[in-house]
């Protein structure tokens, strides 16, 4: 798995994930999210367009990230999940809790504070 972070002029951060998000790679995402969540009022978009597979540890990292962002006065949004991952997020009940957008651009354009 590969994770990259890009900051934006509005202080939001896009965390792009590529590959399988599973028990073997969860530490990379959790560590990266932990670093960007240490900011005041974190605004994080997780780009899932390159995720091929996600297990419960990957889902857990997203939930923990969302909860920490909210506790810090910010938000975490998910963007561009594959059809499979979108169905998984729906099935486990995350879509009512964590906002999901069709694209990163859509997530960036939403001016709702969270």
Can you give keywords for this protein?
Transcription Regulator spoIIAA, alpha/beta, five-stranded mixed sheet, 114 residues, STAS_dom_sf
Description:
With 114 residues, the chain is of the alpha/beta class. The protein has one domain: Transcription Regulator spoIIAA, CATH 3.30.750.24. 38% of the residues lie in helices and 30% in strands. It is built from 4 helices and 5 strands, in the order E-E-H-E-H-E-H-E-H. The protein has helices at residues 26-37, 56-71, 83-91, 104-109, and strands spanning 2-7, 13-21, 43-54, 75-79, 100-101. A 5-stranded mixed beta sheet has the order 1-2-3-4-5. Strand 2, helix 1 (26-37) and strand 3 form a beta-alpha-beta unit. Helix 1 runs parallel beside helix 2. The longest helix has 16 residues, at 56-71. It is globular, with a radius of gyration of 13 Å. The N and C termini lie far apart (28 Å).
Tell me, what is the CATH class?
Alpha Beta
The separation of the N and C termini measures 28 Å
Tally of contiguous helical segments:
4
The CATH fourth-level homologous superfamily: STAS domain
Shape: globular
Q: How large is the radius of gyration? A: 13 Å
Provide the CATH topology. Answer: Transcription Regulator spoIIAA
* Biggest sheet architecture: 5 strands, mixed
Strand content: 25-35%
Helix fraction, binned, reads 25-40%
CATH architecture, please? 2-Layer Sandwich
Q: Could you tell me the mean pLDDT?
A: 95
Number of DSSP strand runs: 5
Structural class designation: alpha/beta
**Helix-strand pattern:** EEHEHEHEH
* Neighbour order of strands in the largest sheet: 1-2-3-4-5
Protein name: Anti-sigma factor antagonist
Pfam family, one: STAS
Domain STAS: 10-111
Organism: Paractinoplanes deccanensis
């Amino acid at each position: 798995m590969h994770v990259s972070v890009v900051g934006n002029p509005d202080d939001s951060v896009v965390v792009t994930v590529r590959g399988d998000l599973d028990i073997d790679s969860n530490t990379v995402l959790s560590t990266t999210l932990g670093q960007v969540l240490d900011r005041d009022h974190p605004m994080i978009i997780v780009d899932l367009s390159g995720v091929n597979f996600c297990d419960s540890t990957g889902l857990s990292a997203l939930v923990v990230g969302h909860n920490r962002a909210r506790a810090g006065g910010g938000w975490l949004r998910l963007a561009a999940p594959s059809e499979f991952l979108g169905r998984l997020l729906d099935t486990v009940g995350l879509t009512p809790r964590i906002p999901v957008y069709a694209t990163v651009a859509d997530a960036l354009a939403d001016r709702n504070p969270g």
